[in-house]
Design brief:
By secondary structure, the chain is mainly α. It has two domains: 126 residues; 69 residues, Cytochrome Bc1 Complex, Chain D, domain 2 (Orthogonal Bundle), CATH 1.10.760. It has ten helices and no strands. Helix 4 runs antiparallel to helix 5. The longest helix is centred in the N-terminal third of the chain and has 27 residues. The radius of gyration is 22 Å and the shape is elongated. 23% of the residues are buried. Heme C binds next to helix 8, helix 9 and helix 10.
Length: 205
């Protein structure tokens, strides 16, 4: 479900931005009649999109907060979105080009900023796993090197079915990394679920 909402959020943000860009371009190029006609045409879809934008956004923020991943970048992002809305309202109402352009810049920036950063760190993907079961977390974060059955050993990874580590040790490797294995971006609870999966399902076999 998280993944579905995350994808819905991306989709509505893109649609939202598209409408916004068109409006701003029309305003900046003094196509006032067109702007009024366009604004009228997209009024209802825009309302639905804005509603979905906010709804999915709030849901995702609560998920990030619950996952302990609510960092300063998200505050900046949230701040930029919240500031850009009144600026956009005033900008388009008064047909002020500067304000309209500024709000577009803010909202585009807020979209890009945190996304790029979090994508890089894998935070978004990990928090929004389809479910938080050890198996799906393992498949998303470990399979690449350790394989479905834990035996793959790609890029020097160890055979997990043969590990002498206990649960806590596995958890520590996940959270802190070891030698050539980098720490995996999951929270403590998720690390625990993965470690339990490794110990019981992979090693148990
Ligand atoms: C990019 C590849 C890569 C990914 C992804 C990866 N590992 Fe590893 N893993 C390694 C490598 C390489 C080692 C060997 C590190 C060393 O030399 O100590 C290792 C070692 C381990 C060990 C120590 C095994 C032992 O007996 O010493 C555990 C446990 C482990 N990984 C679990 C995981 C889990 C669980 C995940 C997913 C959350 C994961 N790894 C993701 C590459 C990876």
């Amino acid at each position: 479900m998280y993944k579905g909402i995350l994808h819905t959020h991306y989709l509505v943000v893109v649609l939202f931005l598209l409408i916004y860009v068109i409006k701003t371009v029309l305003l900046l190029s003094d196509k006032k009649e067109l702007l009024i006609a366009f604004t009228k045409k997209v009024k209802v879809p825009e309302m639905i999109i804005s509603f979905l934008f906010l709804g999915t956004g709030i849901f995702l923020l609560t998920q990030l907060a619950l996952g302990g991943k609510f960092d300063y970048l998200l505050w900046i992002k949230l701040g930029m979105v919240l500031i850009s809305i009144p600026i956009a309202v005033v900008g388009f109402k008064k047909q002020n080009k500067m304000l309209a352009a500024l709000s577009l810049l803010l909202i585009t920036g807020s979209f890009g900023l945190a996304e790029v950063y979090h994508k890089k760190k894998g935070i978004i993907e990990n928090v929004y796993m389809t479910d938080n079961s050890g198996k799906s977390l393992y498949e998303a974060n470990c399979k690449l090197c350790h394989g479905d059955d834990g035996k793959l050993g790609a890029s020097g990874a160890k055979d997990l079915t043969a590990t002498v580590l206990e649960l806590e040790g596995v958890k520590e490797v996940i959270l802190k990394g070891r030698a050539s294995m980098a720490a995996v971006n999951v929270n403590e609870e998720q690390a625990n679920a993965i470690a339990v999966y490794v110990m019981s399902d992979l090693k148990g076999h």
